[in-house]
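S2.1 Query sequence (Helix-turn-helix domain-containing protein)
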Amino acid sequence: MNQANMTPEKELRCLEKLVGLNMLEKMLCSFSKSTGLKAILVDTRGNTLVSTDHEIKDCSFCRKIRSDSSGMRKCQRSYAQACTEAAKYGEPYIFRCHAGLIMWSAPIVLNEYVFSIICGQVLMWEPEDYFLEEIEEMVKGLNVDVSAVKWAAAQLEVMSSDKVQAASDLLFIVANQIMKSGMIVLEQRRNITAQQARLAEEIQARKRSEIAMRTIESRAFSINSLDKEHELKSLVRNGKKRAAHQVLENLLVDIIEINSEQIDTVKTRVVELVVIISRAAVDGGADLSVILQQNSLFYLELLKISKTEEICLWARGMLETFMNQDINKNQKNIIAIQKAAEYIQRNFRNKLTIEDISQVVYLSPCYVSRIFKQSLGCTLMEYLTHVRIEEAKTMLKDPKYNVMQVAEESGFEDPAYFTRVFKKSEGITPSRFKQYAL
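Output structure tokens follow.
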């Protein structure tokens, strides 16, 4: 039966057969508990099929909008469009709903059926007067208290773009797992005893140490964990296996020590580590498609584990698999050169330095300069100048730009310097080039 002709009830029955609603609800609830964000599953018409209302309610702003039937229909249309767009591109789709909130959609495609997990109800900026005025325009025609809606808008959570991107990436991982129909055999457990002993020894050693006040310790713990995660990412990216395993051990001890009785929370934190490690592996030169496929298998394994010591053993195997990817130095250099070139092409209008470019590819300025020169036959600054000159030539052919405007728009701060560089490259001045081009 065509999905467009199915009722929401029939779609739910199909999901039950293809995925299993218990697993689906559990995954959505785990995501909501760990992120504090409401997640729902919708179809291509925007109908809500599965919701985490019993874990997290809609924000006050959304409840007020949806109290009106017309507002509810607009929400449904926003969800339908987000579901379609996410499925079209096969990746997370971050969008602004009809009422102005930031949300994101992760696609789920099961045979001929298309669904999407919707999450969000946040802002990416502090609400200012113009936004509140915009709210008034958006709710025009709805039977709602405009003042109350504005007040609710001012209370909305504000998330940075990095956090929104991280949450959408995590949601995408959850969506990918739902699309997998087979189950993978769990890792053999012959090393569990040794692993458990090592973790127990580390935990006991920490318990014997003198600790500060609980609130201070908690803050210090959070900062320390972030530092360790950054260190782990760097070690994986640079292929330092032994050191990466040690940092992972420390992080696992941290997680278990705080959440020893909350297995779902432990799993969620470990999923975050999977995201960090897999991204670092890709940055280090691993094949993205292979990494995404491996992520899917790992998550299916993790769902079946019920003990913390098994999770720790599983995590070690996961790190080992990622770091055993066949990555050679030349491949890493090619990827770094490509990223550097793409960064220059996107930002040539800005004032760029070799240090700026080297930070993007996680290499030292000297090293990235050397491999760029060896590979392309020109320096980073020569390539930057070439990109700017090509842009200038394009603009000079347009009669609406004069030479000074072209210099500024193509990244040259000094028109006189622009003229010298252009003549050296093209053999004629920009003014003469413009005369010939028009």
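Residues 26 and 52 are 9 Å apart (CA to CA). The chain has three domains: 3-176, 192-323, 330-437.
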